[in-house]
Each structure stands twice: as C-alpha cells, then as structure tokens.
Design brief:
heterodimer; A: 413 residues; FAD/NAD(P)-binding domain; 2 domains; 3-stranded antiparallel beta sheet; 30% helix; 20% strand; B: 499 residues; 9-stranded mixed beta sheet; 22 strands
C-alpha cells in the first residue's frame, strides 16, 4: 500500500483481514486529518442529489471516464456496509439510499451519504430549530454566519428552519485568545472540562432546539463526550465540521489506522516510494527511500493511493507537464482542445481532475487501455476523472475503489 | 501641508490602480542611466527622500546590477558612465563578492555594481500618505468615480462624482482641480474639454515567488528589458516585468506566454527559478504620457519616458483652475505632487513652499526601516491576547476589527490592501472564511453581503492564481478547493456567484 489516506487505509484493512501480509508506506500521515469526517458518495451531479445510487447510474452513463464507471454503484453499497463495520466508534448514520442534508459551517445544506451520529442529528430535510454556538477561543467557527445562512437555505419543500446564534467562553486555556480545535477536543476527553463545557451550554437553548457546535467534541473518547454532553444539557446536539485540521477526520484516521494495526498491518511512515522493480508485466518490489538509502520492499501486489494534486500524488510542472510521482505512470489530463482551467473559480476545472486512468479491475492503464502492470492497482483521488470536492464524492470513490482493488488482489492470490 | 482645504477622490480603493500593481522596487535610478537620464536623476533624488519620509514602508535592501552571460558585456561601462553623469550612486564590486552575498545568483555573472535600490510596500506608503493628508485636514473619498469636470467658461469649478457605495452623485466645488488620474488622466482631461492628453497604458506582468530567492534587488546590467528585475519584498520576491501597449487601462488580463517569459527570465538571474513556488501573478499599467499637441509619436512603450509630465491647461488650452500631472513612477510620486502643487500655487498667485520632502509620514517618525522580522516580532508580543486571522500575513483579529470600525463596508479586497489579508502562501485558504465570519459577526456585512464578500474574494484571488498554477501552488489551490467547496460547500451559498 502506498499512501496513508482513506483509500490506502481501507485497502490495507481489507487485505490484512483477508489474511495478506500488508505493509503501508507513506511520506507522512494521510490527508484524512484534513477531511470533515463525513462519508460523501455523490452530493451534486450537478444538481443536488437526493438518492446517490440512482444518480451514480446516470452520471456514469454520461461520463464513462468517471471513477464510478470503473468502480460500479453496487460496489459502493457493499463497500460502505463493510466500512462502517470497521469503524464502529465513528457511529456512522445514514438514511438508506438517500443523502442526509447537513449544515456546513457557512450554513449551506450539504448533502452527504453517511455522517457520525454526532453530526447526523442536524439533518435539515425535515427542518428544525437550531441554535449555533461558537467558542470564543476558536477562530474557525462563526455561529452567526452559520445561523443566518441556514435561515436562508435552499431546503426540500415543506422543511422550515429557524436558527439563531450564541457563544460560550468555556476554554481549556483560559487567558489565551487563540485556541485550536484539537485543544478543545482533547480537553473535552477529560471529565472536568467536559462538565464545565456542559454547564456553559445549559440554559443557552430552549426545549426543542438542536445545538450546533463546531466538530471538536472529543478525540479518543468522542462517543462518550457526545452522549454525556447531550445528557447533561438535556437537548439534542450536533457537530458541524469546519476548516482543517479537522477533529472528526482525525478520529476517523485514528480508528481506521487502529483497525489496520489490529488486523496485522504494518505502517512505515516518513519514507518515499520512488519506483518499482519488476518483469513480464508484474511488479516484484517497490523502491522506497528513507533518510540514508533506497531499498526494495518485495511485493506480490501494489495499491497506489498517493492522492491527487493536493496530496502530492500527481504533479504539474511549470511547463504544464503532468507527472505521477512514484511510478511515472501515464497521467490522464484534460482532453485536447478543452481549456485546462476556467477563469471562473467555481467552474469545472478539467486540469484538476487529472490522474491515472484505470481499467475495470482498477489497474492503471496506458493510452491503449492496457494495464501498465498486471498487479498494480490505484485507488482514491489519484484516479482520474473526478473533482470530488465539487461532486461531494471523495469518500465514496476512495472507499469503494480501495475495497474493490483489495477484492481483486484477494481473488487473484 | 500647504494649508489648503483638500478633497481627494479615487474611483475605487486607494491602491487598486497602478500604485498597488507594481513590483515594489524603489528605484535607485540605475535602470535609466543610459536610456532616460532625467528619470535616472529624479529616481536617485526621490528614492533617498522616500527612504527618509516613508521609512516604515521601505526595506533598505540595496541593489545590484549584474552582467549575466545573456547580457551585452559592453553595456556595463556605459552603465557606469551613466551613473556618474546622472548622479546615481554606484560602486563596482567583484563578481565573486556579489555571489557571496547572493549565493543563488547566476554563477556566470561577469560584473556587478552596487546601487541604492530598495523595496517599498505600496500599500504602507499609501496609507502613510493618506493618514498624513487626513491629519493635515484632507478628506479622502474612495469609491468616488468622477463623471464630470464642471467648467464655466474658461474656468474649472469642480467635479461631479458618483459615490459607488452609497449609489449617489456628489458635487464637489473647488477653487482648483488637480488631475492625478494616472493612466486614466486622459479621460479626466477630456471631461474638462482639454483633449489630446494621451496616456498610453504600458502594461506589465509581475509574479510573486513564495520565497526571497535574493536578499537585495537584482537588476540585469543591460538596456531595460523584460523580466530583468527581481525584487525581494516582505516574505516574497517579485519578478518583473513586461511592457506592452494595452488597449485599455482597465485590462488586467494575464497572458500565459508572458508567464513563461518571466519564468525563463528568472532562470537567467537565479538558475532553478522554475523549481521555486510561484504565488500570484498580476498586471499593472504604467501611465506613459504622450501629448498629441506636442506631436510626439511612437507605439513602443518600452522606450517612452518614465519622466513625470505636468500639463498646464492654462497655457495649453486656456483653461484655468485645472492641472494634470501624469507619467512618472512610484519612486517619483512625491516629486510629481510637489511639481503640480507648485504650479497650482503659482497660478493662484500664492507663495506657499513645499515641505513634503522634510516631514516624515505618520509611523515613520523614528526613521526606522521595515525589516523582515518586524511583523513577527509584533505578533509575538500580542500572541496571548489575540487571534491570528491570517497566519501567512500575521494579521491579528483586533486589527481587522479596528479597520472595520474605521472604514465600514469594506470588501475583503479592501481588507487585503489595508492589512494584507490572503496575500500569503495559502492565498486566502483559511483567512477568507474567518474574515467573512468576523465582519458578519460585527454587523459590518449583513448576511447576503457577507456571502458575496467571500465568493468575490475567492474569485479575485483565483484570477491571479490560475495563470501560475503549477508545482506547490497547484497543490495549495486544490487543498483550498477541498476546504471551500469540499467542506464548506460555498458554491451553494444563497447568493449569485460573482462574475
């Protein structure tokens, strides 16, 4: 496994649980720590999606180069059912085939397939009464903006929302003006600050209101923190993810890495994969470089999950040339004649969907569609053809793609 | 300072035009010693004055002129002779000494000359001047767009301006009107029925690189050309520039071929330039004056004078109470002001001397120059008491709140020009949301306006990013997309997405 993000960890867990000896190498901790902690499958295509499975069917019919066209809608469902069982402490909740509609930190009703129980209570589809509560030391959450936009939000017919805002000053670092979300989260793991925090919340909200808080409610003991806060305050609470670093993403990272370790997986962080050895179309080992040397890690199969541009799996040089950084695989960029970038920031940006093209078994392919290596698979944002931040499809592509790549390896060996 | 009651009108924000769109070089004059002697002398004198009166806005980096392998080796002797003739202080140093001071410089340089270039923060300079003017009783009306110069017979009596924020017309009556419209000065002169004041927009591109690849200003010792200046300023360095006649002064478009040209030019000065991270690109338009009545011609903007141009409309057009000052450079801004006000005083029959060369701007009284660590030093002192809204530019929340109280209704670009919001490596990736939330929380921006501020700022940052997206800045832009679109879903805020 190359890469410690969601795709690398998911493939690692499945393979290790399937009895494989798995080593995961990565330059650093994966980008899950930056992700909001929800599981998106398909949120916009391009209109807001209510039922992702059907929408994926339509999407792949229109865009045969989309990663979901290789992964298949069936695999998504199967993979998510398996995945949620691997991370029980996250307590993922969904609404069967339908997307939830959860408030983003700027008060946009954001579609997502699964969310931790600590977030799912803010589902806006049925409307509701909310009070957004800020923390005076946290600069990454603005309750008034959240509340005011929520009252203007585009909601399904019949759903009405009222929202107001408040702020509490309970702080794990009294006297410090700038307190990071992780600091709140770690402090809430400890009962004394949790009690102080609950006391500050009590009386802020009226019966029937749901309290929206930034997603900082605990790290290692988040489940306990959430339950106890609700009980002490006596009202429903929901976490709202905000800008990174993301406490909820860290929880998922920790739990998934724990599942991988328990299944016998080995993690080597701080090394860089720089190439492969192999013959007759099969990789026999991955070259990894650490501080002093380059050495070979023998492998029967390899999953490349190094991410797209943001994670560093794909690079663009100053002349406009695209490169896959580990194995120098062919990169699929914008088609000829299509402007790579638009002057309008929120438009489709074809260049940003660059990545490696894969076959039906999720193996990177060359220009003729033939696999580059028979035993090399790719999963996650490195796979070409999606702009997951626009589609709200990142976790679905990563989890289902990694699940399927791992499945293909298990079948083959 | 001379005791007149003064109103300044500016069509957008201070610094939104040419002043805020240059590379930050406070010219020693060396660039012009061969081709434009008058400009060279003016720059030499004025840069010394600006370092004194606006110390806070200037980093006294010093400068080098170096002969690279791509340059005509014969130019260096002409350069040296030109410096002596025009009064530009210069000293030749061994090439090896230049390379010791600037290890990234092209090791193939054959000659090196030390000059007194500096780096000047245009916005700090502007705010210093604005504060000084206000302390002397001036009123500054930004977002006031002049629509008419009021004339009665042969006299100019004032202007009509549209207040673009209050959406109303303002009539300003004045004993005298000075047209300092820069690249737009011709349009203003036309409104006064004084045709033929042609200001050619000489458009140039600049690219800020994320690191200070050099610590002194580096110029190529050659006839002024494209991409031959690298200016270290604050935490970045800026390469510039080109010179192309633009059809309109409002054309800020960025030509991708010029981006490549700048990167190639950077390689000549600092080998490996293309591997460095580019942060942001922009263009600005120099006001190059051509008086149609004087019959000067030519389309080649590179060879038009950078000298300042005073147009006396009384002598030229028989119109009194109206003067135009244009041309010039940021380095000679003070001299331009002195020149035009001297002419006004003379026409009014007054005798009030200019003192701008002697009186320091507010904030510069102690004469201490900006230094690279000054912002961090200030932040370390205030760290426990305040939040950092923008980590890249070390902007504390308190400063944002104070600015919003002073100037209600700012856009985030106004905040950027005043406080450098969003100008660092992440290009607004974190601070855009925070600044929006804070301004909305203060009640300074109601909700719909706050949503517009956020989306407009992201769009405006994108205009300077999209042409230079490669390497680490591509990586950053994709991370920013994960934040704003992925996590916050800002593209579905209930406002129209700005064009």
């Amino acid at each position: 496994m190359i890469g410690a993000g969601l795709a690398g960890l998911v493939a690692g867990v499945r393979l290790a649980e399937g009895g494989m000896r798995v080593t995961l190498v990565a330059k650093g901790v994966g980008s899950l720590n930056l992700s909001p902690g929800v599981i998106d499958v398909l949120g916009y295509a391009p209109g807001r999606v209510d039922a992702p499975r059907e929408a994926i069917g339509r999407l792949v019919a229109e865009r045969p180069d989309h990663p979901y066209a290789r992964i298949g809608a069936d695999a998504v469902e199967e993979a998510l059912a398996w995945f949620t069982g691997r991370v029980p402490q996250m307590r993922y909740r969904g609404d069967g085939p339908r997307n939830l509609l959860l408030p983003s930190a700027v008060g946009v009703p954001r579609p997502t397939a699964l969310a931790p129980a600590s977030m799912a209570g803010a589902d806006l589809r049925g409307g509701g009464r909310f009070v957004a509560v800020g923390l005076s030391g946290l600069k990454d959450f603005y309750p008034r903006l959240l509340a005011d936009n929520l009252t203007r939000a585009d909601l399904p017919e019949g759903a009405t929302v009222t929202a107001r805002h408040a702020e509490i000053s309970a702080s794990p670092r009294p006297g410090r003006a700038d307190v990071a979300g992780q600091v709140y989260a770690r402090a809430l793991d400890d009962p004394p600050f949790r009690a102080e925090f609950a006391a500050a919340l009590r009386g802020l909200a009226e019966p029937g209101e749901t309290i929206l808080l930034p997603a900082v409610l605990g790290t290692a003991r988040a489940g306990e923190v959430f339950d106890e806060l609700q009980e002490r305050v006596g009202l429903a609470i929901a976490e709202v993810p905000t800008v990174p670093p993301s406490v909820a993403g860290m929880r998922l990272n920790t739990e998934l890495a724990g599942a991988f370790a328990r299944a016998g997986g080995r993690v080597v962080l701080g090394v860089e994969a720089v190439g492969a050895t192999g013959a007759d179309g099969r990789i026999s080992g991955i070259l990894i470089r650490d501080a002093a040397r380059t050495r070979e890690l023998p492998a029967d199969a390899v999953v490349l999950a190094t991410g797209g541009f943001s994670a560093g799996g794909i690079e663009l040089d100053s002349h406009g040339a695209l490169r896959e950084v580990v194995l120098d695989l062919p990169v699929s960029g914008p088609p000829e004649g299509v402007p790579p970038l638009s002057e309008r920031h929120l438009d489709h940006q074809p260049l940003m969907a660059s990545g490696v093209a894969v076959d039906g078994m999720l193996r990177p392919v060359g220009p003729g569609g033939e696999p580059v290596w028979d035993n090399l698979y790719a999963a996650g944002t490195i796979v070409a053809g999606a702009e997951p931040w626009r589609e709200k499809s990142g976790e679905g592509i990563a989890i289902a793609g990694a699940y399927r790549a791992a499945g293909a390896i298990l079948e083959e060996t | 300072m001379r005791g007149y009651r003064t109103i300044l009108v500016e069509r957008v924000d201070l610094g939104q035009g040419t002043t805020g769109r240059f590379h930050g070089l406070l010219h020693s004059g060396g660039r012009y010693v061969v081709s434009d002697e008058r400009s060279a002398t003016e720059c030499a004198e004025e840069s010394a004055i600006v370092k004194r009166i606006a110390a806070e806005a200037v980093e006294d980096t010093g400068g080098l002129f170096v002969t690279t392998p791509a340059d005509d080796p014969g130019y260096a002797d002409r350069f040296l002779a030109g410096c002596l003739k025009t009064g530009v202080p210069v000293q030749e140093i061994p090439a090896a000494e230049a390379l010791r001071r600037e290890p990234r410089l092209n090791p193939g340089i054959s000659r090196a000359f030390e000059v007194q270039d500096g780096a000047v923060d245009a916005w700090k300079l502007l705010w210093g001047n604005a504060r000084s003017a206000e302390e002397h009783g001036a009123r500054i009306l930004s977002y006031h767009w002049v629509t008419e110069v009021i004339r009665e017979g042969d006299r100019v009596l004032g202007v009509m301006a549209r207040d673009n924020r209050a959406q109303e017309m303002v009539r300003i009556e004045a004993a005298f009107v000075i047209n300092a419209g820069g690249v737009w000065a011709g349009e203003i002169a036309d409104m006064a029925d004084c045709p033929g004041v042609t200001v050619v927009p000489g458009k140039g591109i600049m690219i800020a690189m994320n690191h200070r690849l050099v610590r002194t200003v580096v110029n190529r010792c050659e006839h002024p050309g494209d991409g031959d200046i690298l200016v270290p300023i604050r935490t970045v360095c800026v390469i510039g520039t080109t010179d192309v006649k633009a059809d309109s002064p409002d054309d800020y478009s960025i030509d991708r071929a010029e981006v490549q040209q700048m990167l190639d030019a950077g390689e000549v000065i600092v080998p490996g330039f293309r591997q460095a991270r580019a942060l942001h690109a922009w263009t600005g338009a120099r006001p190059l004056f051509k008086d149609e009545r004087a019959g000067e011609g030519g389309e080649d903007t590179r060879h038009m004078s950078r000298g300042l141009a005073l147009v006396d409309h009384l002598r030229r057009d028989g119109v009194s109470g109206f003067l135009t000052i244009t041309g010039g450079k940021l380095t000679t801004y003070r001299l331009m002001a002195e020149t035009v006000v001297d002419a006004m005083v003379e026409q009014m029959g007054d005798a009030r001397p200019c003192t701008t060369a002697d009186e320091p701007l507010p904030g510069s009284e102690d004469g201490r120059h900006y230094w690279l660590g000054s912002r961090l030093a200030a932040q370390e002192e205030a760290m426990a008491d305040d939040q950092l809204v923008c980590e890249c530019e070390l902007l504390p929340r308190r400063k944002l709140i104070e600015a919003a109280r002073r100037r209600p209704g700012m856009t985030l670009d106004d905040v950027r020009r005043a406080l450098r919001l969003g100008m660092g490596p992440c290009q607004g990736g974190f601070c855009t949301y925070r600044a929006t939330g804070i301004l909305h929380g203060l009640g300074d921006a109601e909700t719909e306006r706050a949503d517009e501020l956020l989306l407009t700022f992201l769009q405006h940052r994108w205009l300077g990013l999209e042409p230079i997206l490669y390497g680490d800045q591509m990586r950053q832009a994709c991370l920013d997309d994960w934040i704003f679109q992925g996590t916050l879903d800002v593209e579905h805020l209930p406002v129209a997405v700005p064009a």
